[in-house]
Fold this sequence. Notes:
Layout: H1 3-15, E1 51-57, E2 63-78, E3 81-89, H2 93-96, E4 106-111, E5 114-125, E6 132-137, H3 138-141, H4 158-161, H5 171-174, H6 178-189, H7 193-196, H8 222-229, E7 244-246, E8 249-254, H9 258-264, E9 273-277, E10 279-280, E11 296-304, E12 307-318, E13 321-324, E14 333-348, E15 355-370, E16 375-379, E17 385-394, E18 399-408, H10 413-429, E19 436-446, E20 452-460, H11 465-480, E21 489-499, E22 505-512, E23 516-518, E24 522-531, E25 537-544, E26 552-559, H12 561-571, H13 581-589, E27 596-603, E28 607-610, E29 613-616, H14 620-627, E30 635-638, E31 641-649, E32 654-655, E33 657-665, H15 668-672
Parallel strand pairs: 8-9, 10-15, 17-21, 22-32, 23-33
Antiparallel strand pairs: 1-2, 1-4, 2-3, 3-6, 4-5, 5-6, 5-7, 8-12, 11-12, 11-14, 11-18, 12-13, 13-16, 14-15, 15-16, 17-18, 19-20, 19-21, 22-24, 24-25, 26-27, 26-33, 27-31, 28-29, 28-30
Amino acid sequence: MNPGSRFVLIVLLVLMGLPGPAIPAEGQTSPPSRFDADKFMSSADIREGMKGYGLTVFQGTRIERFEVEILGVLRNEYSGSDMILGRCTGGPLAKTGVIAGMSGSPVYIEQGAKAKLIGAVAYAWTFSTDSIAGITPIEKMLPVIDLAPTERAFPAGAAQMNTLNSRDIPQSQVNPPLENWEGRLSAFLRKDAQGALGIAGKPALQAAEFPQFQPAILPAHSSWTDWWQAPLKHRLSGNAKGGWVPLATPLSLGGVSNEIFDQVAGLFPAAGLQPSLGGTAISAVSEPVHLEPGSSLGVALITGDLNATAIGTTTYMDGEKVIGFGHPMFQDGPTDLPMTTAYITTVMPSSMNSFKMGGLIEIVGALEQDRFPAVGGVIGAKPTLVPFKVNIRNQAAGIDRDFTYEIILHRFFTPRFGMMCVLDAFDAATRAMRDTTTDYTLTIHLKGRAPVVIRDQVSSAMGTSFELAMTFSAAVDLVLKNPYEQATIEAIELKTESVDRLKKGTLEWIQMDRQEVELGQSLKLQMAVRPWMGELQTFEKAIAIPKEFPVGPLLVTVNDAAGYIGEMQRRNPDRFRPRSMDDLLRLLNEVYRNDQVFVTLSALAPGASFNGREMPNLPSSVLRVMAESTERGTGQFLANRPLLTETIQASLPVSGSQMILVNVQPSQADRLN
């Protein structure tokens, strides 16, 4: 009989009031050296019918006792670990069943005057009508205390760490190939933040002219949810083995509006998080609260003007070292997250999944391990947090507000939680869903490196908060996941200046003042832009033709910023393929604003680009040799050679492109000579 079937049989027998089957204890591993038989009881010694108790918090900070009756032990149920089954009674459990937030609640077996710790409440049966819990054996949890924090300050993310548990995960999800990262970088440089995040499908803001049909701040298509949840889809789950699942971890969200909460709430369950409106609870506590077995154990993911704290329970402490949960949180392995005390406001009963509602009291240390059997931390350790400051100004509306957040430094979650902060700040400061044009500067401060500074102007009929949030998320994601070196973000700033108007224009036509021009003379370019609900605007630019220009046909191309970058990428793809961190920072810091138009003058001359260098006017024999080469990926054949690029500053973001051909002639003096 397989383990999942044994579990189903035990549960059915228990629900029918019959005794569970006797299960042999063969195949047990030796207890770890930290195991003390006077304090702990191994799962090998657990027997059906034993009675004991557990400790947890149902309200406030008071640790309460609940009763536990052992139903049996599932041997080698998951990854070489036993699972102890126990029926829990007392407190609100008859009404609620096993409660999300009880993860880590220590369970003791009483033997005379002694009570020995056997493990932690960690798993439950979905839709169960009885309070039957899966208990992680203490001998599996204790080794987490002694694991070294080998990668503190840079959690890798759940996709990488899942492989520690021998999960069957496609390699592309464990470590995305370099080509995928390069493709996302290419999309970001073309101002496609959605593509830069690897989100498939139509960009969410293309239909923003019809907000009545798009009430949501976040796009509703499945690819967006997939981006949030992709590394978490293979999270520990027992659905295929009889229905047990790790107890969800309540995620208390404070300082967030109902609208933002509704938009993001559905994104967290894949991470094992159950979001609820909460906040900080320091004002509800009159005396200092300390971690101890049975106390609420929090993990702060965001602090400041928005608070996001995951809540479980402390299982065991050895001096300043703490273990809890009885299952992984994100399965990061080595991690670095703020460990907190927490306050429980109430327990919310639910037929599907009852959960604790509460909030953070204060940060007391750092969570350094996120492993299969438990999370572990150290009281007094200092976690790494990323300060994030957002300034939102709208002079006409009299708005000038600063928002301050601290976000965990994490390859996977920093971009996502930072996105939440951007949405939260705009929602708190101004209406999110209206005609808006925003100038912004995003600065990412890196340890030991010059900062990344991104400046631009965006405009949307649905507000600019989501576009800015995606830009933030994409930029941070690319920096943290770069394949060249570990990048440590020390701080992030976002400064914005908005007006409550839709400022968008379409390039309708261009016109030159002449068909032919002599070397040394100037061409006058006239450009017409059609604004949204406005009169046609014209811009002029005088362009001097240097005497060194070649005579003959001259191609004049006028592009918006995205089109100009796309054209450069097609001409010389290797220039946009970084080979070092220096190359990446150079590309991210190049400024091509949406309210600028780029005029390029090109000579018709066959050539090639190689390793980022353009080589125009190559002889046909050289081009033939290159065409017959067996090597590809380092260059590109070219049909023309850019000679000069000029920028026209517009008064609004412009989209579109046009081109025109003129003829360059020698100067009159040269012709006479």
